[in-house]
Structure formats: structure tokens, C-alpha cells
Amino acid sequence: MTPNETRATGPATAGRAEPIVVARGLRKIFPGRAGDEPVIAVDDVSFELFPNECLAIVGESGSGKTTVARMLVGLETVTAGELAVRGESRAAGVKRLADRRRWAKEVQYVFQDPYSSLNGRQRIGDIVATSVALHAGDTATRRAVQRRALEILDSVGLDERFAAKHPHQLSGGQRQRVAIARALAADPAVIVLDEAVAALDVSIQAQILNLLADIRAAREVSYLFISHDLAVVNQISDRMIVMEQGRVVDGGRTAELLAEPVHPYTRSLRAAVPRPGWRPVRRERLAS
Amino acid sequence: MTDPLLRLDNVRAALRLRGGEQELLRGVSFTIGAGEALGLVGESGSGKSLTTRAITRMLDPAFRVTGDIAFEGASVPRMNAQALRRYRQRDVGMIFQDPRAHVNPVHRVGDFLTEALVRDRGVDRRDAERRAVELLDEVGVRTPEQRLRQYPHELSGGLLQRVMIASVLLAEPKLILADEPTTALDVTAQSDVMAILDEQRRARGLSLLFITHDLELAAACCDRLAVMYAGEIVEQGAHVYEAPRHPYTIELLGARPSIEHRVERLPVLRYDRAAHELLKAEAS
Predict the structure, then answer these.
(1) Domain-embedded: residue A139
(2) For A122-140, what is each residue's pLDDT tens digit?
(3) How many structural domains compose chain A?
(4) Cβ of B190 and A272 within 8 Å?
(5) Considering the domain boundaries, does residue B63 fall inside one?
């Protein structure tokens, strides 16, 4: 691994809590199309996610950051290496429906585009209630489930008038609030936020980032925050790892890493972010 | 004073609906001088893309457009079909957010680049290809001869956007309209593409209208900025980024997280349509 790995190991929060998620030497190889070489999307990735922290995975398109997240929730199989949630391996993949449900209760996923990840025919209240009912067990009464769904919607800033609406009647920011509410309904230990604010306007992005901070202040939850936007990552995450072409090339406390990036790739990412006094610069000639 | 290259004077566009009209551009005025770059900045729905479509007279016929748009003193709304075609083909070059949506996927890059020259300008095919190769080289595309024979899907997004820039430069326009040209790209590719666009534009003395949601990016690449809100320009000038005066601009700049430091909570925009109308009523 890189010399920087030591910087990435300890939890940002105080205490010596056990990590919730542990990835060790994680690999994902996609078979190539006819005649093509297989694609190594994720190559020897290791990280730990501790309780009540936000770990960002930063990288450009094709770096493998989303593939890591998808393996964590069982949307992709693991080719090699170890991936465990609370000590239970997820590397073997989902075998039974009960397993999938148990996994989903611990790790929830919020996608970039809430419009395509919400059921357009379901009312907002039902979208959240379905998730509450699924994870609440058989003892919960219908009325208790409905009440809980309204409480969760309220906690993400959507009052009960929204419960009767459909996703298409909402703005992009409101839809992302619904997606977050649905994730919270499972009462998960980890929420994967995959470019969850990337498509939002600046004014809406600020609201959602504040909401995510509020949620962490109100309850114990960890975020795995997948993003290409270093300014957003600086605002929300405690620690970050940097991925390039499937490998983790850098990692550490976000504030330190962004204040004084040492690794050349992190430096180049940092240098490309527009800021006061910044000028765009040409790279060397592109071959791809 | 000579005419600016492009002048928009109180441009309004109202969408005709069953129940009446909805005005989506509400009196947009600005000028772009020869060799000047103007950044038109706004959030989604602010009317920045509608403005570019109005400039090229490509708004849907369901819009009722008033006000004047003049290019080198000639009124665009009053151009006849022939003049309009010439204006769109020769005077204005367009670069879009998604280059893949604007190239024919079954045509080779070379055909895409040379088609307009050969068909509309009567340039010899070999001559056109030679010029295309030169330009691809200038915008930093390696092995340009090979690229001409490839199809768009074989090129990465950043590379394809460079091909789009080359195609615009080939037509030798006076004004480039770039609508979120780097929004779909990674930050390093964005920096690269903007640097190329900036450098090539300056070298040729071309004017640029740069449409973006990113105030910081626009400030780095433009001489002046114009900030749009709800179909209007609320503030424009060279001062906008360093010393914004309009409350919307100030709040918009404050809401963006910073890579330098972290804040407890991001300031949330309080500026809304009601505040906007109130401010306008007070000003008049």
C-alpha cells in the first residue's frame, strides 16, 4: 500500500470503537466484452468505516468508487478480498431474501438521481412507509408504520402535505430528501451517498448537506460519501480515501489531506478545483 | 462608439399556454464586444439556456419573443432565412454540455469535422482534412490523423469535447456559445478543456458567451459576469465575483462549500421569488 495508508487508518472520532465496515484487499474484475481484456474496476482496496463518521471516497469517473459502494450493498459481487459489515462477510454475495433484508437494514443507498430511484407510481408517504414496514418486523401496526413514516419525512424537512404527493410533483432537492427519508426508514448503521448532491443546484446542495449534518447530530449513523467534488467532501467528511484507476492512492483526515496534499494525484485533483484566483491549465496531450 | 458584436436589448420570451402566457425571459439585456468573454451564470430554470436559444433564434415557436438581438448591428429576429442560415453557420459556433448528443454516432470524427466545410463552403475534402488535423493538434489531441477515422464512441468525454471545440474553430465563427461545456466532465478534464477554449479563443480574438452554474469557473475564464435569476439578469460587470452587490449573488457565492475551510452549517439562500419581486418594487 501507499506510505499514506497509515494516515487513513485511525477513526476520526474519539474512542476505539470497532469498525462497522471493513474492506481488505477488495477486488472487482468485470469480464471484457468479446475479445477484450477483463476490466479491473477495483484493485486491492482496503478501508474501514467507523461508527458515526463520514468517510469520503474521492475519485474521477472510472476510478472504481461507485463499484466499491455497489459491492457493499450487494449490487455487485466481490471478485476477491474481504468485505465485512459488523464482522459478517459480504464477499460471498446474497443467498437468501432474509439475508438481503438484514443487509439492507444495516447499509442503505442513496443514488445521484432520485427521480430514477423512486417509484413514480407510489406516493411519498407510501415510499417511506414501505421501507419502515419492511424493516420494522411483524409487530408494527399499520398505524404505527404510517406515523413513523410521517415522523421521518418531517425530520428531513418534508411536512405531511408531501405524503400524498408523487415524486414527479416534487423538485430535485425534495426528491433527494425523500430518498434520504427512505434510507433512514430502515434505521441503518451506514448510508452510502453516491454523488447524492452532484446533480443539485448550489442553493439546494447546501440544504441537503446541512440536512445530512443534522441527521448525524440527531442519531448515530455513518456515511460512505462517494463524490468527485472536493469542496463538498471538505464540508461533509471526516476522513477520505482517494481512488485512481481502481486503486486507493491516498487517504487521511480530509482537512489535512486537502490543506496539504502530498500525493501527486491528490494534488492534481486539488489544483483543478476552481477557486479565487484560479486559472484553468492544460494537461499534457490526451491519448485516450 | 462602434456596435458591440452582440447586443441583447430587453429580450423577453413568453411561453403561450392555454390559460395565458408565462414569461420565462423577463427583459434580458447585455452586450458582448469583439474578443470579449461574458459568463452567464445561474441555477437551473434561471433562463440562461433559453437566452442562448434566443440568440440563435432556436426557441420553440410556442414562445412569443420580443425585444431585439443584434449581431454586428443586424437584427437577428428580422433576418431572412438566408441571412439566418449564414449567421448560424458562420458567425456563431456552439458547444454543448453533452457532446455525444450533438454528433452523429455512425459518422466518423473526420466526417463530422469536415462536413460543414466541404458541403457549405466548397472546401476541397483533402484540404478540409488537413485543417481538421491541424486544429485537433492545437487543441491537444494526440495522433489526430488516426482520430479522424474513429467513431465518437471510441473517444472519452474530455476528448470528444476537444473535438467539438475543434469543429467550432474550423468554422471560424466570431462568437462561441458554450452551454455548460464542462459540466459532465471530471475536474481535471474541466480545467483542461476550459484552458484550451480560453487559449484558442484569445489567440483568434473570438468572443465567448459562457453559460454555467459555476460562478468560480466563470470568473476564471471570463472578462465579465452576468448573474441570472428567474429570467432576469440581476447583476453584471467585471466586479461580480470579487465584490458582488446583489443579495442573490452574495447568497449564491456564500452557499457553495469551500475547499479551503469548513463551516458548521452552510448558509442557505433566503433569496426567493417574493424577495426578488419586493426588491424590484423597491428599486423602481
Answers:
(1) no
(2) 999 999 999 999 888 777 7
(3) 1
(4) yes
(5) yes
